[in-house]
């Protein structure tokens, strides 16, 4: 080996009060995404885009964040990735601070909430959706950056020069975990379990040096996904939204096409966090249904547009 790989040692806390309590980067990422969505949706409404009035944006974003993103994302995680929790640990569903959110669940939650909101306020659902999908990638970007800071959802093994070694790997690989415990306990007897070792790696150079010889270099797939699902998808959708003020539904349909493409590409570099479905990871498999829905959505939107022009 001609160079050393970076051993991930970022703390999940901006400010930490004890082992479990503190201000976490993950929570701040959600807040940053909601704030960005609020201001951008207000700007779009002010300039005549979509069905929402500017004075409706605040309430919509608040309840969309609560019922769509948070509840939908958590339930999606439980149903898609941890269904055993329903019977084995039902109270664990409410322990969101332990981690576990699914972007597909959040998307489904937003679809349901925005449809109900549009119906109650007698406005166009796609008129809401076109603005919503244009700002959603900002939240996805913030979430993926937080995944990287947490050292979770790491990538597949690789030897590219920018590969990173993630201590959280020890939670999934018993052989490497046993070796790490054996070696780190020699310098500190309290380092006799994986969570303690992961925590120690954040401030101990000596522990990181030991882990560098144990851990596998991996793709920083969280950063790939932040670029694909966040930055690139945002650039595409905001361009489409500003270009196609009418008919309603174009940006929404494009989101259902482009997000699955970005997710499928990103997941090719990510270590599967659930059993495969054929050759597909869980995220890729769920994205296929979104892609099919996107084709149908754009086809339906075009039909309506052509019909309206012919009147």
Task: Compute the number of strand runs.
Answer: 5
Structural class: mainly alpha
End-to-end Cα distance, whole Å, is 70 Å
What's the rounded overall pLDDT mean?
92
Residue share in β-strands: under 5%
Rg estimate, integer Å = 22 Å
In N-to-C order, the SSE pattern is EEEHHHHHEHHHEHHH
**Gross morphology:** elongated
- The count of domains is 2
Low-confidence stretches: none
- Fraction in helix: 55-70%
Brief rundown of the structure:
This protein is 62% helix and 4% strand. With 311 residues, the chain is mainly alpha-helical.
Give an account of the 3D structure.
The protein has about 300 residues and is mainly alpha-helical. It folds into two domains: about 20-150 and about 225-310, no CATH class; about 165-215, no CATH class. It contains eleven helices and five strands, in the order E-E-E-H-H-H-H-H-E-H-H-H-E-H-H-H. It has helices spanning about 25-45, 55-80, 85-90, 105-120, 125-150, 175-185, 195-200, 205-210, 220-245, 250-265, 280-310; strands spanning about 5, 15, 20-25, 165, 215-220. The chain has a three-stranded mixed beta sheet with strand order 1-4-5, covered by helices on one side. The chain has a two-stranded antiparallel ribbon with strand order 2-3. Strand 2 (about 15) and strand 3 form a beta hairpin. Helix 1 (about 25-45) packs across helix 2 (about 55-80). The N and C termini lie far apart (about 70 Å).
